[in-house]
Each structure stands twice: as C-alpha cells, then as structure tokens.
Amino acid sequence: MNTHVHAIILAAGTSSRMGRPKQLLPLGEHLLLGHVINRVLTGEFTKVTAVIGHEAALIQELLPVKDSRFQWVLNEDYHSGQSSSLKRGIESLGLQQANVMVFLGDLPFIEEQTIHTIYQSGVRMLKEYKAPFMIRPVYKNIPGHPVFFGHIHQETFSGLDGDQGGRAIVEQFAYKRRLLVEDEGILLDIDTPIAYEKAKERFEN
C-alpha cells in the first residue's frame, strides 16, 4: 500500500486583486510564499512541490530552498486558473496513484499542529479506504486549506477547468471527511491589499 504523502503548494497566479506578485510580499522576516514553504516543510511529506507561473524566475531567485524534498514546478498555463496548477503539480509527481495535501501559496498562518493533524488523519484513512477520498479542515463551520486527497490518479482532476474548485472537486469523491480544527489560519488568505495590511499587523503582534 502506498502511504507516501506529498505536499503541493499552488502559487502560480497573477495576484490580480493584489496588484503585485503576492508571493513576494514582505511579511515579517520572510516573503509570503517563503513563510508557506517553511511551514509546509515542517510536515512529514515525502516531497514538497511548489507550482509557480507568474514571475517564476524572480520567485526562484528570491526564495532559495535547500531542503532536498523540495522542488519548483513551472505551470506555463497558469493563466488558465488554479485547476491547471493542481493538475500540473500532480502530474509532476510521475505517479499512477498518489496521496497529496494541497496548500495555497497565500495562507501563511496555518499552524504546524494543524498540518500534522490533517496528515495523520489522512494516513489513517489510507489504510481504511481503497477508493479516492478527501479530507478538508473546517474552522467554525467554514472549510479551508490544506486539503488531503488520498488514492488519487492522474485522471482524478482531468475534468476541472479554470478556477473550478469546491463543489466541482468534492463531487469527484465518494468518501469525504470534514475535519474540525481550532485554527483560523486555514482561512486567512492574503489576496487583497487590505488582507495584506491585516497580515502585517498580525505578524507584528
């Protein structure tokens, strides 16, 4: 049984609502995407893949990552939306069947314990179910990220287009679990100037 779990960070977008590449926004002592990568690398993942597109060369230049589990993957079709990055990340693993946790590149406040809790829940379900399944964390009845996908295949998300997510993804799975967590960080994405200002205040405090 394949119980290896890979992490995929989706960070290829153009940051149109921010007006500049949010992956490279300064936040405390690091850049936004750097915070996300560092937090994901605290997990027990076999491989960590960051899918980038817009300003890819600059991101790689400004965010050197030394962990041997880490790899950058380029999504040249990033204008097509987030689903293209998800499919590109899964494709890059080169596996017929995979288990992945999908993170968003603009959620820097997820707690290490939350990542561990979702991971362990996923590993347990890998042993219980043979069919594809998903686990989504929920805070105060609102679903967030990262999302765990178990026993998925290259074709699992082949029908998704653009920024389709949520319901379209959920419909792919017969087995779905909502995992309650006490971590607001699963919801705190930084995609507007106002959200960025609030994030800076959060770091300063």
TrEMBL record:
Signal peptide: none
GO molecular function, one term: nucleotidyltransferase activity
Domain MobA-like NTP transferase, chain residue ranges per copy: 7-172
Domain of life: Bacteria
SUPFAM superfamilies: Nucleotide-diphospho-sugar transferases
InterPro entries linked: MobA-like_NTP_Trfase, Nucleotide-diphossugar_trans
Pfam family, one: NTP_transf_3
Designated name of the protein: MobA-like NTP transferase domain-containing protein
Organism annotation: Pseudobacillus wudalianchiensis
